[in-house]
Amino acid sequence: MAITASMVKELRELTGAGMMDCKKALTETDGDMKAAVEALRKKGLAAAAKKASRIAAEGLVAFSINEDGKSAAIVEVNSETDFVAKNEMFQTYVANVAAQAAATSASDMDAFMEEPWGPDPSVTVRDALVAKVSVIGENLQIRRFDKIQTEGYIGSYSHGGGRIGVLVEMSCASVNDAVKEAAKNVAMQVAAMNPKFISRDDVPAEYLAKEKEILMEQASKENKPANILEKMVEGRLSKSMKEICLLDQVYFKDDEKTVGQYLKAVSKECGVELTVKKYIRYETGEGIEKKQENFADEVAKQIGR
């Protein structure tokens, strides 16, 4: 019986196994879907399907940066538990995913997952992930990736053993040690303070209008004259901008300066004008609803299993 692409796709959806494994199982069972599922289960390749329904909100953020600091990629790969995130096999796998992202031409996750896997081009990134799930025994997800290419310099910082990762693109005419240090310091600032925007110029008008509306609603309960309320709201809005705009934030290494003032001082000192062009901040599991479980119960479940 001829094995069609739609049959392979169906078996992949049923089992979570790799494309080549699915095709082989269908060929061996002459296209019998039920028998193919059983064959994959016997090989342990269908186990990934069961695990895929479990929440993966732990894991690591990692990056791959070119030696000259001109190009970099950042990835987040999730696991179910922090134990796996600290596992050397998982860490090596995530480093390989970051290297894959640095070399990829894919513009979205679907295309990325179908690329030949760097360490073994005979399988896809998706197939390699499914195989790793079977070996490690937890649901794993390559959640996202991003890249930066620049004529300037890319600084980076990893915090909490890979829980938070930051890339910062600095615009500069040349690169020296002072520029590299400043780029790393700004990346540390972004990791710690999690700004929403680089500067006030980047804040969308709609965001400002919404914030002003919220602040006005709050202030209206204070029973003050309209002109006083307006000034109060403007003051609070300005204070808010100092918290969410990177260049307006208090610099974490010197509370007498803002980040913008720090960069001006470095620019003057090293003779290279430094500006922040872009930053990417990934935090493991952000936005994922985590399942809360009692640790003792979880251990009991594992033993019971």
TrEMBL record:
Translation elongation factor EFTs/EF1B dimerisation domain ranges (all copies): 72-286
Cross-referenced Gene3D superfamilies: 1.10.286.20, DNA helicase RuvA subunit, C-terminal domain (1.10.8.10), Elongation factor Ts, dimerisation domain (3.30.479.20)
Domain of life (superkingdom): Bacteria
Principal location class: cytoplasm
A GO MF label: translation elongation factor activity
Region spans: Involved in Mg(2+) ion dislocation from EF-Tu: 81-84
GO terms for cellular component: cytoplasm
InterPro entries: EF-Ts_dimer_sf, Transl_elong_EFTs/EF1B, Transl_elong_EFTs/EF1B_dimer, Transl_elong_Ts_CS, UBA-like_sf
Record's keyword terms, sorted: Cytoplasm, Elongation factor, Protein biosynthesis
Subcellular compartments: Cytoplasm
Keyword flag 4Fe-4S: no
Pfam families: EF_TS
PANTHER family: ELONGATION FACTOR TS, ELONGATION FACTOR TS, MITOCHONDRIAL
Function: Associates with the EF-Tu.GDP complex and induces the exchange of GDP to GTP. It remains bound to the aminoacyl-tRNA.EF-Tu.GTP complex up to the GTP hydrolysis stage on the ribosome.
Family: Belongs to the EF-Ts family.
Name the UniProt record assigns to this protein: Elongation factor Ts
Organism from which the protein derives: Bianquea renquensis
Gene label: tsf
